[in-house]
Amino acid sequence: MTGSDPAEPRTVIVEGERVVAVVDPRTFKRRADDQVIDAAGQYLIPGLADMHSHAASPEDMARYVAYGVTTLRIMHGFSTDLSMRDAVAAGERLGPTLIVASPMLDGDPPAYPELFPVRDAAEARARVISYQKSGFDQIKLYHNLSADAFLAAVDQAHALGMKAVGHTPVALSARQAYEADYDSCEHLSGMLQDLQREPPALTQDVSSTEWSLRMGSGADAAGAGALARIAKEHGTWLVPTLRMHRVLQAPPDQWELWSAEPKLSQISNVVRERWTAEIEARAALDPKWYDKRDQAWSTLLAIVREIHEAGAELLVGTDFGMPYLYAGEAVHEELGTFVEAGFEPHEALAAATAKPAQFLDQSGKFGTIEVGARADLVLLGADPFESLDALRKISGVSVRGHWLDRAALDQVIETGDLPQPAREPAEPACTVEASGDVASIEDFDDGDAFISGDGRRGMWFDFDDGSGGQQTPTASAWRLTQDGPGDEGLALHVQGGGFTSWGSGFGVNFAWDEAENRACAYDATAWDGISFWAKGNVGGFAVGVAELDVTPVEQGGRCTSRCYGTHQVEVDLDDCWRQYAFSFSELEPVSWSPEDGPVNAAELTALQFYAYTGTAPNNHHEYWLDQIEFYEGERPAGAASCLAGAGGAPAR
Fold this sequence. Notes:
652 residues; 16 helices; alpha+beta
């Protein structure tokens, strides 16, 4: 159960999250309260790993488990991934174990406009340090980094005890990246460029499909072994993501067939949105490149065969998030491509079990079935060492010791929901009741002493602008101005850019327990809704309220999963100050919220404003806020106070 040969029949004993014994079934003595899974005649393997995933929602991660994939490396992480990782590790949530790489470090110009560019070695080191402080496990590097920035980032990551992973920048050869002790290289990037018979000039905006077809068809696989030996010497692991290449190289008529598959319902809205750009980019591709697809595919298989024969280390990764790859199922397909490239079934399985643990310096902790290993297990109805078709016959999955039988797995695939640890609803750890008749939440007129009186406290920022969701914005991200709507007081001016599709914004905590550093429930039932004045360039500006049910347990709330959902409503801002007002009943839970009921105004914890879509270039967003208030009775009519010329004072 730790090597290439099937073990003799054994009974595996699990307590909590770990395997505590592997014994001869003839000596096993059942205790009265033991749960026994009769696996006679079946085959038990360790849980599988996807070492290159862009899973973006709890539904994606749940479906991974249903296919026996119990470990994921997230290759472009956000603060929400860190929260999910920590909740799973703490036993507060059931799901795959996560290793979360940082947001991508890319050069100037970045490959995607929402990325914040790293221009030199000093900026690269500072960004790596920032991501390490934010809690990311690894540092993700991308292909437009300069050579100096790449080398500095790798060196800084290693100095902090982190692995540097990702693409080989076009400014370096694969050999140079490997000799820098790059920890893992994805998609055969770098190697494919180095193996080109006639290196093509690829523009920054070339589609992934064109890159795969041109690089694959133009490469000479004969040189892969020499590069692989250099990678082996320097400890660089390779993640070829072959199934991703195969999907990209498929002709348009195949994509049309895939687009009509019923299982598209298994893809979360967040991931499906990521498919859009790649699908649109294919439309502009010269059809002649599809004539190269057979050559490109056979060359990629030959390259992986050469790498394997040279003894370099390979890992199974899918690049889930790319079109027509499905959570979990894509791992089974990737294993099949390894066999097609010449791996024995047990060798392919090792690249998704024991090898990921070795790469992560966690051998014996997962990826094998031995005492002390995490109880991530997959029960199969056929022998996977004979054929990986056995992965289609999963009888059950244990994830951290929680057993899911076939019926439960089918339900997970259908709904995207994993059963969660039972918890009694917690009573509010602390409650602050409204006092007096003051309805103002914040008018910013007291400078940076935000929120005072009536039990309310504090302000926070959450900028998901490529910084990984840091809660301390840069000095230029916000300031107070005199540009208020119709008064002489101050207003808040917020600006930023980047991943605005995920939201970046400002919020206030209604009540806070200073001693325990956690949110309290704030009773706002004396009022009927909220109003505020705003202007800006934001389309899809959301205002929302959080309550105990969506506040994480560790922050004083009740939520153990999807704790980033609120009751919201969206408006489109323009360059005119306008008053917006919404009753609590108009605020609806967003699709990823853990609840679907109305706002409970007696248990509010925070008021939040998010800029989802900046309308300026590079997703730059800019907005102003003032006079945020509760209202009682009739909703304010929605007055306007427009600027008298560019940069002028508000009309009064």
